[in-house]
Design goal:
The structure holds 2 protein chains of 2 kinds. Chain A is mostly beta strands. Chain A is built from no helices and 11 strands. In chain A, strand 6 and strand 7 form a beta hairpin. Chain A is globular. In chain B, a hairpin with a 6-residue loop joins strand 4 and strand 5. Classes of the chains: A mainly beta, B mainly beta. At the A-B interface, strand 5, strand 9 and strand 10 of A face strand 10 of B.
Chain lengths: 109, 114
């Protein structure tokens, strides 16, 4: 079967750095997405990785290792507005999206 | 540019009632889809469409119908609502059905079935 694993919940302090991990086992791989979802709102696109390595976009970076079936989202200089759920989704061999359950990130002052 | 518009935002139904969730996009996107989101689970695909006149089933299609008569609109119909259909529903669209494309989501519709 296809499986995406993410921690259910994480807590971090304002101004700090947090790493949210995502491991996957899917039938084929055509890329990995990260989306941000604030409570009661729609998911919004953060990043897309299809090749190994680190993609940096401002305070957010996303890393992919295809051989390990592993990705992480790195958030730097945390702000209270970063409190949200972070969804990992893998594109499988049929170009279907397989979604993780999401990681709820709580930022404390 | 409104993006993806979903209505209604909230709905309460009784078991056995039917209803339609509306979804419209103004980005000329080829691909449209419906997801449901339940606590502790990833987004699950209900139905999707790769263009006007073409629809297909996703992971959890039972109890739902869709149609795509125009590029812009993709309504989701609940035929006979059941408590198990209590969920938050999201419509999402992307530029193309081919390849890996960024999804634009509607604001969501929270449905409660009593």
């Amino acid at each position: 079967g296809q499986n995406i694993d993410q921690p259910t919940e994480m807590t971090a302090t304002e101004g700090a750095i947090v790493q949210i991990n995502c491991t996957y086992q899917t039938s084929g791989f055509n890329g990995l997405f990260w989306y941000q979802q604030h409570a009661g709102e729609a998911p919004t696109f953060l990043s897309y990785n299809v090749l190994d390595g680190l993609e940096e976009k401002g305070r957010f970076s996303s890393f992919l290792s295809r051989s390990k079936g592993y990705s992480y989202l790195l958030l730097k200089e945390l702000q209270m507005k970063d409190s949200a759920s972070y969804l990992c989704a893998v594109v499988d061999s049929n170009y279907q999206l397989i979604w993780g359950a999401g990681t709820k990130l709580i930022i404390k002052p | 540019n409104a993006g993806v518009t979903q209505t209604p935002k909230f709905q309460v139904l009784k078991t056995g009632q039917s209803m339609t969730l509306q979804c419209a996009q103004d980005m000329n996107h080829e691909y449209m889809s419906w997801y449901r989101q339940d606590p502790g689970m990833g987004l699950r695909l209900i139905h999707y469409s790769v263009g006007a006149g073409i629809t297909d089933q996703g992971e959890v299609p039972n109890g739902y119908n869709v149609s795509r008569s125009t590029t812009e609109d993709f309504p989701l119909r609940l035929l006979s609502a059941a408590p198990s259909q209590t969920s938050v529903y999201f419509c999402a669209s992307s530029y193309s059905a081919a390849g890996a494309n960024v999804l634009t989501f509607g604001a969501g519709s929270r449905l409660t079935v009593l």
